[in-house]
Design goal:
five-stranded antiparallel beta sheet, 9 strands
C-alpha cells in the first residue's frame, strides 16, 4: 500500500472516532421548571420523631429539624456517598464530615442558582409536632435531606490573663454537636402526595461537629490592673 493510501486510511479512522465532549454536570433543571410552569406538581409531607422507648409509649416529635428538598443530581449524590464512605479513614475525616456535607449542599444550591433554578431549593423546619410540608413541588426525582443538631456544651479551659497573649488567634473547643442526618429519594407525581417519616430507624448518618471559639487578646491595662480608657495616654 502506498504512503498516500495509508494516510488516507488514517484520516478516515480519525474522522470516524466520536469527539470527546465534556459531560454536562449542570443540574437538569429544565424538566422541573417546565413541570412547574405546566402545573404538574405534587405535595411532600412528613414527620420527624423518636421511637417510643416502651411499646405502649408515645413517639416523641422532633421539632426544629431542618428539611430540604433538592433536585436529584447524580454528581451531588455521588459526593454524599463519597463523604460517608470516607468517615472511617481517620478521626479528622470523621470530625470534618459535617462541614463537608454542608459545603456539598451549599455547592449544589449555588449551581442551581447560577443555572436559573434557585427556586428549586426548597426548605422547611419541622413544627412543634414534628411535621413539615412542601406544596407545589414540581414533578420529578428529588432528594430529601434533613438534619437535627443536638449540642453538648463543655467548660472551656480557663486561660490566665498573664499568659493569654500566648494564645491569641488560637481556637478553643467549647463543646460538640451531634448531627443526625436523614437522606431519602422521593418521586413526586402530579396531583399526588408523598409522605415520609423520619425516625431513629432510617437515619442515614450521624456525625459529630466540634464547637470552637477564638481566644480573644487581653485588653490593655494602665499597669495597675485597671483597663485603660480609649484615647488615654
Amino acid at each position: 500500500m502506498s504512503r498516500r493510501a495509508v494516510l488516507l486510511a488514517l484520516v478516515v479512522m480519525v474522522a470516524s472516532v466520536p469527539a470527546l465532549v465534556p459531560a454536562d454536570t449542570r443540574p437538569p433543571i429544565d424538566t422541573y421548571l417546565q413541570a412547574r410552569d405546566h402545573g404538574l406538581t405534587g405535595v411532600v409531607t412528613g414527620e420527624a420523631f423518636a421511637e417510643p422507648t416502651q411499646p405502649s409509649g408515645p413517639a416523641t416529635p422532633f421539632s426544629d429539624v431542618s428539611v430540604m428538598l433538592l433536585p436529584a443530581v447524580p454528581d451531588f449524590e455521588a459526593e454524599l456517598d463519597q463523604i460517608r464512605a470516607g468517615l472511617r479513614e481517620n478521626a479528622r475525616a470523621y470530625l470534618g464530615a459535617a462541614e463537608r456535607l454542608r459545603a456539598a449542599r451549599e455547592g449544589l444550591e449555588r449551581d442551581l442558582a447560577f443555572s436559573g433554578g434557585g427556586e428549586l431549593v426548597l426548605g422547611e423546619v419541622t413544627d412543634a409536632s414534628g411535621r413539615f410540608r412542601f406544596d407545589s413541588v414540581p414533578t420529578g426525582g428529588w432528594i430529601l435531606l434533613a438534619w437535627r443538631d443536638e449540642p453538648h456544651a463543655q467548660s472551656a479551659r480557663r486561660i490566665r490573663a498573664k499568659g493569654a497573649g500566648d494564645f491569641v488567634g488560637l481556637t478553643q473547643m467549647t463543646g460538640f454537636t451531634v448531627v443526625t442526618l436523614w437522606r431519602l429519594a422521593i418521586d413526586v407525581r402530579p396531583g399526588e402526595q408523598a409522605a415520609v417519616r423520619l425516625n431513629d430507624r432510617n437515619i442515614w448518618l450521624t456525625v459529630v461537629r466540634e464547637d470552637k471559639r477564638t481566644v480573644e487578646p487581653p485588653k490593655a491595662t494602665d499597669g495597675t490592673g485597671s483597663k485603660r480608657r480609649q484615647g488615654q495616654h
